[in-house]
Write a structure and sequence with these properties.
Elements lengths: L2 H53 L5 H12 L2 E5 L5 E5 L12 H13 L4 E8 L4 E12 L2 E11 L4 H48 L13 H51 L5 H33 L7 E4 H18 L3 E5 L5 E4 L1 H18 L5 E8 L3 E8 L6 H4 L22 H12 L2 E7 L3 E9 L1
Parallel strand pairs: 7-9
Antiparallel strand pairs: 1-2, 1-5, 3-4, 4-5, 6-8, 9-10, 10-12, 11-12
Helix pairs in contact: 1-2, 1-4, 4-5, 5-6, 6-10, 7-8, 8-10
The chain binds adenosine-5'-diphosphate.
Amino acid sequence: MTLRMRIAAHFILFTVIVSALLWLMEVVLFERLYYDAKTRETKAIAADLAVSCANDTTEDFKAVLTDAAVNNQLCISVYDGKRRLAFQRDVMNNGCLLHGHDNMLFTFIQALDSSSDGTICQRVYDEQIGMETLVVGCLIHVDDETQGVILLNTILEPVDSTVAMLKRFVLLFTVMVMVIGCVIAIVLANRLSAPIVRITASAKRMARGDYHTRFEGSSCREVDELARALTYAEHEISRADSMQRDLVANVSHDLRTPLTMLKAYAEMIRDLSGDNPVKRNAHLQVIIDETDRLAALVNDILDLSRLESGSQKPEMQEIDVTSWLTDIIARYKGVSEQMGYHITFTPDAPCTVTCDPAKLERAVCNLINNAINYTGEDKQVFVRQVNTADGVRIEVQDTGNGIEEDKIKLIFDKYYRSEHHTREVVGTGLGLSIVKAILKLHGYSYGVRSRVGEGSVFWFLIKK
Ligand code: ADP
């Protein structure tokens, strides 16, 4: 069932329920409500008159009873303690049940005498006038003693004609409500479903690879949010897609270059330098370097996919940050200083943290490698340990060209490499993605501050 049909169906169901309830209230319950109201009213009058009769020792109560009879269209009969008629008023012109029906009268008085609360209330059909009537009786008490009886008889007006009129009214009302309800339901369903239908069509276009599809919202906030979420998803998918393409281009280029060189140098050794030990050694060294480069790329790809698969858990261990960093940097000293690089380590007070030192070392090394690769002419790299209230911040700073602001959010992406990337700068485009994966595995925050022309500071915070 489509959304449009579902909304319309629910709305129509709602109007049907409302109409049915109205029907029930007006037609079925009307008669009962009328009789209940009439009974309540007559009982209240009877009780009031009983009190008036009891309190009145003079003949004045007759005037009160006459008024009540005329004003409320009631036949009233009052009997004294010896059951002698003390007052009678028939507003139905001798059609009253209390008039000339001694047997019935006797039954009412008997029922009243034997009732537990001193009242009776009966619906009796009056054959004389051919209508239903209501008989209400009440004992008159004076000083807790029964002094007399008051009986009231009134016609219960037939409600059939009113009900018939109401039926016509409710039918008309139902038809009108249904028509208006259907129109509103269809308009509403169309207005609600149209943007969703549009968004679905756009999503299908996006699924087919068109990443320039526009997701239009509507006046509803939820639909707007859906459109915005899909636009964001489209942007991300498009980015992932182009990165995927870059990956294939980068990886295949990076694989092909060393493979070509390996083949070329192997052929050179076979055909030319095989017998010349100096040349052969130089060529073999190239083969070894290229194999290292190839192995590094393959290792990075494997490490990253392992880290990102979530199968690796950090092997937590307590370490002293200062001595751990000192060891790492010491290992760089020989190689880097030979090539003219200076790595300056600024420690803070010794501090113990719990982390996976092997993985975190990989992250630190990747940051230092990048700093070495991208630092400026002065070949300076600074590593700092800064103890903070939240933990220990590790900073790796270089003095290179820095990173443009719009590139900063991209550099931690897989296979992202700046356009200025050259083969001289050894790198797979995976270094920072591995750093990110390791830091995410630990739940550490990380970031980079960089200014073009002034260098960059990569940092992460080891939580305490
Ligand atoms: P790689 O260095 O192998 O290209 P990385 O993932 O380590 O891959 O880095 C991604 C990109 O981030 C690099 O190509 C470079 O453009 C940029 N980058 C990383 N570190 C620095 C740095 N210290 N200074 C300037 N740019 C950097």
